[in-house]
What we know:
The protein is 30% helix and 22% strand. By secondary structure, the protein is an alpha/beta fold. The strands form 4 sheets. It has a 10-stranded mixed β-sheet with strand order 2-1-3-12-11-4-5-10-8-9, sandwiched between helices. A 6-stranded antiparallel β-sheet has the order 17-16-18-15-19-20, sandwiched between helices. A two-stranded antiparallel sheet has the order 6-7. α1 packs across α9, α7 packs parallel to α8 and α10 packs across α11. The radius of gyration is 27 Å and the shape is elongated. The N and C termini lie far apart (61 Å). 46% of the residues are buried. The N terminus is likely disordered.
Amino acid sequence: MDTVLPPAAPPASPSASPSASPHSGPQPSRTAAPTPVTAAAGDGIGPEIMQASLRILGAAGANIAVEWIDIGERVYLDGNSAGIAEDAWASLRRTGVFYKAPITTPQGGGFKSLNVTIRKSLGMFANVRPCVSYAPFVATQHPEMNVVIVRENEEDLYAGIEHRQTDDVYQCLKLITRPGCEKIVRYAFEYARAHGRKKVTCFTKDNIMKMTDGLFHKVFDEVAAEYPDLENEHWIVDIGAAKLATEPGAFDVVVTPNLYGDILSDITAEMSGSVGLGPSANIGAHGAMFEAIHGSAPDIAGMDAANPSGLLLAGVMMMAHIGQPAVAELVHNAWLRTIEDGVHTADVFTQGLSVGKVGTDAFADAVISRLGEQPTRLPPVKYSTDARPVRIHEPVARPKAAKQFVGIDVFVHARTAAEGLAAQLRRAERPGFNLSMITNRGVKVWPNGLSETFCTDHWRCRFMAEPGARFDTSTVVSLLSDLAELGIDFIKTEHLYNFDGEPGFSLGQGQ
């Protein structure tokens, strides 16, 4: 595949480096064939930090063969709305390992996030972000911080299913599945066990979203019971986040649905000292992607000012993942020694803490010069030579529930009062099948609504079948036909079911 790395030539593949590292410490094996790795230089500062990171990995003896692909802004602007071409997909599927620099998604135009597309298309369901403080060498208010955020990566609001439904109202669907919950929760416990962690904490908002977040919490409790060697706890995400922000030492591994994890992992990374130091791994049964958590920072592109640490530490995670722990250990300890020696890029440079302010290339040189050394004040890291990737469990198939069709929510676009809308809708009632409730933005406004409730032009109108009444899809078709004849502008419907006798739908607020 053609190499694409503007504005400079791509960094040389580390597989072309000398067959043995000249540095002391654990030596990587070179008896095996190089591991194929797909790499993308990205946009903005991406080419600079990728070149620096690969140069360090190569100097440490990384035994990899890089396949370059082009993704991101140029591909979007060339007319590919996905931001990635077919030949790039072929490389990703062939290697199963992706080392990715930050990219830029063009503003406007409906462009979808390429990160989300890659994660979901290749089933990378687990996002793992270690957030570690490096006090006193990197300024932080939380010197004892060492938290790992394990974030569900495929579901939740990141399904990206959005619609405009009325003049005033837009919707985004939050999708949570039991298999998705099982995979990520079990991965969090397996990660904790594999890395010698002591506790797994679940964050949800199931006091409000009782069905979606409630499912995540329920599955967490079920899975936690299978890991008696690990502590477990659950926090409502708002108060849990407040606790995490003030007492990060109270947490070890945190597992969350997608959106909460995205927000919390950036916050915790910044709390540790800088988002620029944060690495990220995206793990699935069919592949893994390793990247920095920060963006492409086009404002400093080409200025030799970017910190390559996030991408480099993601490369360390990649080395451990592909079975080259000696390289991971060499690089990680050399990086720690560099930070400890006060050699810092501008984003973490602090007068009195830092010794020298360096650019991207000089920082890479500093790490390379310390390969084989260990930090003396920060804790050195040790990567087990027999370490294996965290075990991924397939979700357990569950028996099909008894499903009973009991009603329908009809969403209506109307500028009217609730009482007037109810009078119209009730003309479509039939024996045993009646209008039971109208809500506006989730709040019950009929029957017996409050005049103080602010309403928009978007109404949920619930029709329920009486016990024993005949009710099926033909009833729904007949109802909608009657509503159309009445001039009701219905814009969406949701069928209401009981599963094993339990309602599979929420009540209205105030119902």
